[in-house]
Amino acid sequence: MLNLPTDLLRTFVKTVDTGSFTRAAEAVGRTQSAVSLQIRRLEALIDAPLFVRGSHRVRLTEQGLVLLDFGRRMLALNDEAVGSLRPAKVAGAVRLGAPHEYTASLLPEILGKFARSHPKVSLEVTCDLSKNLLGRLAQGEFDLVVALHDGPGDGRGTPVLSEPLVWVGSPDHARHEERPLPLVVAPPPCIYRSRVLATLNRQGLPWQIAYTSSSYSGILAAVRAGLGVTVLAGSTVPEGVRRLGEREGFPAMGRLDVRVHRAPEPAEAALRLADYIADSLV
Predict the structure, then answer these.
(1) Number of domains in the chain
(2) pTM of this structure
(3) Residue-number span of the structural domain to which 190 is assigned
């Protein structure tokens, strides 16, 4: 019976999630050539190509899409089993900072599984804008921070995900057709806000800020009420909003990097949580 090594699967999944072999190499702590070799080994094991060769971006073959689904489930079960068998060795409090949209969407399920596997670890979660979180991390307020980065980044942190940015509006209103375009945004130094204003100015599209809120829930409530449109990371777009694209006259917004940052000399509990988030955040 053929066995698929979890280290190869982890590299494969991380390559898909980060969107490039270079970022995957940073995430798994290997060189880019080592990551490429692991992918070739995995392809040799299953006797099928996983990625479309010659594509500028990471693009999966049909076999790659099938393996990605199985790989995520296999790694999640592996990590949960390992954590359940070694909970007594990890204890203490972890101070985690993360953007509002992730604490409201993806992180609750991830942190819930971590807590069940590590019952002696207590979690203190704080929400804020990414740049504020990184500043507070430097001041010693956090053990871990999940933060957005505008572009490839400056080498800080561990890349865990490359997120497409998506325009969203209300399905019950037509504010997206108005000019100046009414915007619902967070206050500075919000990365989404900076990207939106820079893109609209570059395209010569008139805009006005119709509503400002520092919380993810406040922004969604304003969008659903028809106060304006906003931009969200693709994985955090909830039900009950309308996605807007080039067909509606909206410019492409590119992608943002999601990175996990550790405090200097973190405790074992913080290291374990950082690895768990990096492997689970998709």
Answers:
(1) 3
(2) 0.75
(3) 164-254
